[in-house]
């Protein structure tokens, strides 16, 4: 009886093992049958153009501080804030009565000096004649010559005083040194003007052309120098293509600009160097103080290109799915910029590598994946 029970238990145990093995095989077969079939593409290499944006500030080609050159009270203002003025146009008037009187005084002093000069000349000529007749000594002649030379000096000094008075009188009318737009006034009628004033009266901006200043990091600047032909920075700048300006509102400025200057050294604090681009401004759209972004096109040859749609971004890091040993692998890649619909890959992939092109939205690393056959993929496309 006991022997029969042992045989029956053994048969039951073996049956259970066999049943479990069948179930496991069925699960593995079902698991393999459920592995998704996803399209695979090959990494390509080619040329690319990348648009890089750099924050920029705008200034007129000439920003002139309007300051008084003489002391006096501001008596007239001929223009208003924001007006466009032309070079030589009167802007402000400083009370000039003092300067007119100084000019009159200098002119009167000149008349006196000229009269003294005439008298000295007559006296010198007379004593020279008397000296020839031996009626005066040589010392007296020399004294007359000295008096004459002093009178000549007085005339020159009076003439110089007149010119100085005229200059001061002209400075009492403050004129525009360049054509441009008037800025905000820092002083009003009746204010005491002086060359030593801390603030300028206003700022005059010539904006028929504008300068935009933007900065490049050390790496970007090194790439900038390598990218364009030239044995010196001046030649590199000359061969640099036109740049665009993105306005603060998001619109692209209609005129293109040209880089024309590079700062002499890097800023030790920021580690960047400043470049300057000049833009024409025929419609006066841009004003001093505007901000925007300079768009600099950078060209790359024989770089690895990866479609943006075939990547996944997690916490500012870019990944691409590949198939290794029949399973999905999420591979990190380093990006050097965007060129149209592609990423420029600097590290992580090389030309000829294969990646999963699409259908990986819910795919997890380690999931079994089957590469879609190329002929089937072509039929679907």
Automatic annotation (TrEMBL):
- GO terms, molecular function: transmembrane transporter activity
One example of a Gene Ontology biological process annotation? response to antibiotic
The terms describing its cellular component in GO are: cell envelope; plasma membrane
> What UniProt keywords are attached to this protein's entry?
Signal
Keyword Disulfide bond set for record: no
Q: Which InterPro entries match?
A: MdtA-like_b-barrel, MdtA-like_BSH, MdtA-like_C, MdtA-like_HH, RND_pump_MFP
Domain Multidrug resistance protein MdtA-like barrel-sandwich hybrid: from-to ranges:
63-203
Where is each Multidrug resistance protein MdtA-like alpha-helical hairpin domain found?
Answer: 102-172
Domain called Multidrug resistance protein MdtA-like beta-barrel: residue spans: 210-295
Which residues does UniProt assign to the signal peptide? Answer: 1-20
Positions of the Multidrug resistance protein MdtA-like C-terminal permuted SH3 domain: 302-362
PROSITE patterns named in the record: PROKAR_LIPOPROTEIN (PS51257)
List where in the cell it is found: Cell envelope
Family membership, please give it.
Belongs to the membrane fusion protein (MFP) (TC 8.A.1) family.
User: Which protein, by its recorded name, is this?
Assistant: Efflux transporter periplasmic adaptor subunit
Q: What is the lineage of its organism?
A: Bacteria, Pseudomonadati, Bacteroidota, Flavobacteriia, Flavobacteriales
């Amino acid at each position: 009886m006991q022997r029969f029970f042992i045989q029956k238990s053994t048969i039951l145990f073996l049956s259970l093992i066999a049943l479990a093995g069948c179930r496991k095989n069925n699960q593995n077969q079902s698991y393999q049958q459920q592995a998704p079939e996803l399209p695979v593409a090959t990494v390509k290499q080619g040329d690319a153009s990348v648009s890089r944006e750099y924050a920029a500030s705008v200034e007129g080609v000439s920003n002139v501080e309007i300051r008084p050159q003489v002391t006096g009270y501001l008596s007239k203002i001929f223009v208003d804030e924001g007006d466009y003025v032309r070079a030589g146009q009167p802007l402000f008037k400083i009370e000039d009565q003092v300067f007119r009187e100084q000019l009159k005084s200098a002119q009167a002093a000149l008349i006196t000096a000229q009269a003294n000069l005439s008298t000295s000349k007559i006296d010198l000529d007379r004593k020279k004649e008397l000296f020839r007749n031996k009626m005066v000594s040589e010392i007296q002649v020399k004294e007359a010559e000295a008096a004459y030379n002093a009178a000549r000096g007085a005339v020159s000094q009076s003439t110089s005083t007149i010119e100085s008075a005229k200059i001061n009188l002209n400075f009492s009318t403050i004129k525009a040194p360049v054509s441009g737009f008037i800025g905000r006034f820092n002083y009003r009628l009746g204010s005491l003007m002086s060359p030593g004033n801390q603030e300028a009266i206003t700022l005059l901006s010539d904006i028929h052309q504008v300068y935009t200043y933007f900065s490049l990091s050390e790496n970007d600047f090194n790439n900038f120098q390598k990218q364009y032909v030239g044995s010196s920075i001046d030649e590199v700048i000359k061969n640099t293509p036109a740049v665009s300006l993105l306005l603060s509102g998001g619109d692209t400025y209609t005129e293109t600009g040209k880089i024309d200057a590079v700062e002499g050294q890097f800023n030790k604090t920021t580690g960047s160097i400043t470049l300057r681009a000049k833009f024409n401004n025929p419609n006066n759209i841009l004003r001093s103080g505007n901000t925007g972004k300079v768009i600099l096109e950078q060209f790359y040859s024989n770089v690895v290109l990866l479609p943006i749609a075939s990547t996944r971004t997690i916490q500012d890091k870019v990944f691409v799915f590949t198939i290794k040993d029949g399973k999905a692998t999420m591979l990190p890649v380093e990006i050097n910029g965007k060129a149209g619909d592609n990423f420029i890959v600097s590290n992580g992939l090389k030309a000829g590598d294969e990646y999963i092109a699409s259908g990986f939205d819910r795919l997890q690393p380690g999931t079994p994946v089957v590469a879609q056959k190329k002929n089937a993929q072509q039929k679907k496309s």
